[in-house]
Specification:
Order of helices and strands: EEEEHHHH
Strand content: 15-25%
Number of helices: 4
Structural class: alpha+beta
Low-confidence stretches: none
Largest sheet: 2 strands, parallel
Radius of gyration: 14 Å
Helix content: 25-40%
Number of strands: 4
Strand order of the largest sheet: 1-2
Length: 97
């Protein structure tokens, strides 16, 4: 499991990989008392690390559930750097509907 934590965070746990950084409020939601990254942020954080078929499946699922739009994902991917942007652009996807 990967977690993004504030820069001063010090705890560790087996099987947990920590990434330190600040997240914009628009990327954070609340689920059962925990702060979580919203689907678009989670997809973009992992996009450059995933196999293209796996990424396409994740994106298609999010589109079908109405969690994001193709245009919003492509636009936001550009702000995550070239590897993420290219991965998202290469993932075959269709607009939900």
């Amino acid at each position: 499991m990967h977690l993004t934590v504030p820069p001063g965070f010090r705890k560790t746990a087996p099987g947990i990989i920590l990434h330190k950084g600040e997240l914009p409020a628009e990327d954070i939601g609340q689920r059962e008392g925990y702060s979580v990254t919203l689907p678009m942020r989670s997809i973009l954080d992992a996009a450059a690390l995933m196999e293209i078929d796996q990424l396409a499946g994740v994106i298609e699922d999010a589109l079908e559930r109405g969690l994001l739009t193709k245009r919003a994902l492509l636009d936001r991917a550009e702000t995550f750097g070239p590897a993420t942007s290219l991965a998202v652009e290469r993932a075959p996807m269709k607009e939900a509907g």
